């Protein structure tokens, strides 16, 4: 049994032929054994091999050991026995597989479309509770704020939410499909907009994949710049969300100040590369903009000012009883539920789950420099806000340290366009929402046979639905904001 | 008397939107923003009144009439309150019931017009409004009974339109719950958030989501008149003898703005508790007004 999975080497390409191809029964036994042993599914998708047979690839990692494994399964008769009934974390992956390839997971408890690639988003049956006192509330896809489209269906009894189901696909752009046969000249730009607020995270994941396939070792200085940009992105988004959370509960001071401070952090990204969302900064082979001494000093000064402003604006939250009363015990998700559906990112850490790719599966500069994992325990809105508050501080400390010890050297290498044929590689990055996983397979000519993207939102939307159970429907907006998941990152 | 009616009506119509402007300016100041102009609401009303209304196909005559009825009832209630001593229009035993049931009638039409749209959001808002206002009403009545006892009269408008100050402790015990109810009745923080865009959390705003153009203008104007009415009552309770005390309504608006700036909105579940505490304070005032120590004159 020992050889029945391949340990993926980070930043290295691995021959696809080394990924064990198992029959369904062996695969099922092995996978369930792995998940029971603490394995967490990062990605589970279908791909065609050279003979146009459908193969299911599973990327699974052990956080405690820092290992990522790959294994695959032959599909016969376009069907396989669903794993969801044994382990909930397969639920959405199997629905996605069914939608993308038509491979039916037999016995799946809730086999519905995930994103409507045909274009008929919204046509679906929701789980319904029946009874004269039950009422159904439909929210979206057009929302009151200027946010992305998505649909929420609540089953309520008075103000109490019994069940929430989310429905997506309104932002589906067919990114994965467009990447097949790539990389193309525009691929790097597409990567920057998978989720527009996670540009650095997705670009870095892609860059690492390209570097692995082209066997390019990139200079430490470029790694450091990437890490700085990733942490700036985390700060800007967390600060923006803390402000938006205060806005949702009508607490004006923090809301107004954090809105402005978020802009300050976005401008730091702009100082780095000329774009507030760091578009075009992370490129395969390195970074598109280097940090010279002038920028370094300016960045350090702005960071210092930003930190001071943020600390004073956000600490108001933890000193105001009415804010704490509003946040505490709102939208609780238990650690058991969060672990069962394998939530990621700050939302998982707010339940006390220590899961952070930067520590568990480090890549790039995170190999060299450790960033502490911030957790909280209650799993409510308060905890999710608090984890973000802690993370912003850790990130700022980390950036300060990196700026002080910025390695010398050049900012990039040429990667070339010769990708290693018939290979597979995986890239895991801790974006500000949590783990994102890019998996790429090349064909015999060194083009992408399959490029699979898993955004943290893919893991966490179900978490939001569970957090609402038994809660008040009027708490939904603030609860939703505390997760702040991506619609386009999910819809791809 | 005609003069008094004209003065009260004009004051209610003209000053009420300014209160909203003052609240918003105060909030802007506290959050470090410049904020919209003091007279923004006048511009908004002017803009909306020029516009035609769009109406959902599911609505009926109820929805069309509601803004007019809500506006008229609220204005009528506001006009009953004397803005300075001796300018009362009518007074009779138990006139406060007329005053607050005019507001009740306005609320009734607001609620059924919300239900008339058939929207699940508006239905939720309507049920919240009905539930919370039922709890706010007794608090108001107890506070008023206290004031009536202090003034030794059975007419509320008489009590507000003259007489003298009573015992300050008891006046505070009547005014504080009244202020809390004012925040609840006028959809202010901590009960409701007038600035939110989140329908699921709204109480008042969600009920007028379907209103547009002239209908919306009347609804908004009625809401601001209601705020004017409540702040005028508070001012008249505190300073019944003063002629220009109505100017203090602007101070009340500043206080509301400060309250909204320093505290967050509470969860809906805790609103009954908040109103209940207001009720306890009101009761305390009422009981103390019977005590020998605090007897008036």
Structure description:
Chain A is an alpha+beta fold and 492 residues long. Chain A folds into 2 domains: 2-106, NADH:ubiquinone oxidoreductase Nqo5 subunit (Beta Polymerase, domain 2), CATH 3.30.460; 175-491, Cytochrome-c3 Hydrogenase, chain B. Chain A is built from 16 helices and 16 strands. Chain A has helices spanning 24-36, 91-101, 175-179, 187-192, 199-213, 220-248, 252-273, 293-319, 321-327, 335-340, 345-349, 357-360, 381-404, 456-468, 476-483, 487-491, and strands spanning 6-7, 14-15, 21-22, 40-48, 54-62, 67-74, 79-81, 104-106, 134-139, 151-157, 160-167, 282-283, 286-287, 423-430, 435-442, 448-454. In chain A, the strands form 5 sheets. In chain A, strands 1, 3, 4, 5 and 6 form a 5-stranded mixed beta sheet that branches. In chain A, strands 2-14-15-16 form a 4-stranded antiparallel beta sheet. Chain A is globular and about 60 Å long. The relative contact order of chain A is 0.15. The model of chain A has no long low-confidence stretch (mean pLDDT 89). With 297 residues, chain B is an all-alpha fold. In chain B, 67% of the residues lie in helices and 0% in strands. Chain B has one domain. The model of chain B has no long low-confidence stretch (mean pLDDT 89). In chain B, helix 5 packs antiparallel against helix 7 (168-185). Chain A binds chain B through residues 135-139, 144-145, 159, 246, 248-253, 255-257, 260, 320, 322-323, 325-326, 330, 472-478, and chain B through 27, 30-33, 120-121, 123-124, 189-190, 193, 195-201, 260-270.
Task: State the main characteristics.
heterodimer, A: 492 residues, alpha+beta, Beta Polymerase, domain 2, Cytochrome-c3 Hydrogenase, chain B, 2 domains, 5-stranded mixed β-sheet, 4-stranded antiparallel β-sheet, 16 helices, 41% helix, 17% strand, B: 297 residues, mainly alpha, 67% helix, 0% strand, globular
Please state the structural category of chain B: mainly alpha
At the first level of CATH, the class of the largest domain in chain A is: Mainly Alpha
Strand content of chain A: 15-25%
Which range does the strand content of chain B fall in? under 5%
Helix-strand category of chain A: alpha+beta
